[in-house]
Specification:
By secondary structure, the chain is of the alpha/beta class. Helix content is about 40%, strand content about 20%. It has one domain (about 10-315): 3-Layer(aba) Sandwich (Rossmann fold), CATH 3.40.50.
């Protein structure tokens, strides 16, 4: 099912703001950074290009800068590509309502589309960013033109697997560990070696460049960010106590009526690709599901050009 593409050009290190990014030999000056107010937060964003809006939403343990290779390529294809930080991923970015649930991040996505002055956006979400994209599409599909999910499927299959699938329970050990008070200390030890162990396990054979690893460490070293990132997982297995948030979570988990594409790496060490089987039942306007061979969890970095080709083909349909 996957499109076979030649390997991307050799990487080189460039600088975006104060962080180093491994980028293919494309003009780093195409990437701009600023802040934008939405849903009570002042979101840092990276952006490139002009044209139809494509919002790229990162996951864990990751940050918006990992989208830079794709932002530049999307810009060259005629899109306005924007990668915001998820709530909690910067100093001063703590959730105003204390919520790091899917519905809250979905509301952020819809507010960002409005604040950016767009009527609609294409959403490209990876990992927790995919969760945010699904929630936004479920809450208000009129604001979403098309939806692309990467590495985290939608629907009840994944939630069931946390309780009933031994293989997925082993893969998801870190989620259960994050419920303990030991998590913060363990993650920070030896220059965040814990996080980079996850990267190695989830994307076998892929190695972050040293400059990218340093930039990722700096994200989680910021005051408050690690605890806020862990809150996504600490709220994952318990229902919200606020009735309003309970209702919103229900709305954010409905069927999705947006034309959608789903990409998953066959070698993903975080979430088994087979858990995406049957998720098409949750998509009432069509879902194309592609399992990419030889790719792990961070597929947008491992095979940026192949992922881009799938996205562009889908957007032009």
């Amino acid at each position: 099912m996957a499109i076979v593409t030649p390997p991307p050009p050799a990487d080189r290190a460039v600088t975006v703001g104060s962080a180093h990014i491994t980028e293919s030999p494309l003009a780093a000056s195409q990437i701009r950074s600023r802040r934008i107010q939405a849903n009570g937060l002042d979101f840092p964003i990276l952006e490139a290009g002009n044209g139809p809006l494509v919002l790229c939403l990162h996951g864990f343990p990751d940050h918006a800068r990992s989208w830079c290779p794709l932002l530049v390529r999307l810009a060259r294809a005629g899109y306005w590509a924007v990668a915001p930080a998820l709530r909690g991923y910067w100093v001063g970015g703590a959730a105003p309502d204390g919520s790091y649930r899917a519905a809250a991040t979905g509301q952020d996505v819809l507010a960002l589309i409005e604040s950016l002055g767009a009527q609609q956006a294409v959403l490209v979400g990876h990992d927790l960013g995919a969760r945010a994209a699904y929630a936004a599409a479920s809450l208000d599909g009129s604001r979403i033109a098309k939806l692309v999910g990467l590495a985290v499927p939608y629907g009840k299959g994944l939630a069931t697997a946390f309780f009933a699938d031994g293989d997925q329970q082993r893969r998801s050990w870190y989620m259960f560990f994050f419920q303990t008070r030991l998590a913060e200390t363990a993650i920070e030890l030896n220059d965040f070696a814990f996080l980079h162990r996850l990267w190695r396990e989830w994307s076998p054979g892929y190695e972050l460049a040293s400059s990218d690893r340093s930039a990722l460490n700096e994200t989680f070293r910021q005051p408050g960010v690690l605890a806020q990132a862990l809150a996504y997982y600490r709220q994952l297995f318990t229902p919200p106590s606020d009735p309003a948030m309970q209702a919103l979570e229900t709305l954010a988990s409905r069927s999705i009526s947006i034309p959608s594409l789903y990409l998953h790496g066959a070698d993903d060490g975080c979430i088994s690709a087979h858990l995406s089987e049957g998720m098409d039942a949750m998509f009432t306007n069509g879902l194309e599901r592609v399992i990419m061979p030889g790719v792990g969890h961070f597929l947008h970095l491992e095979q940026t050009d192949a992922v881009l080709n799938h996205i562009l083909r889908f957007l032009r349909m």
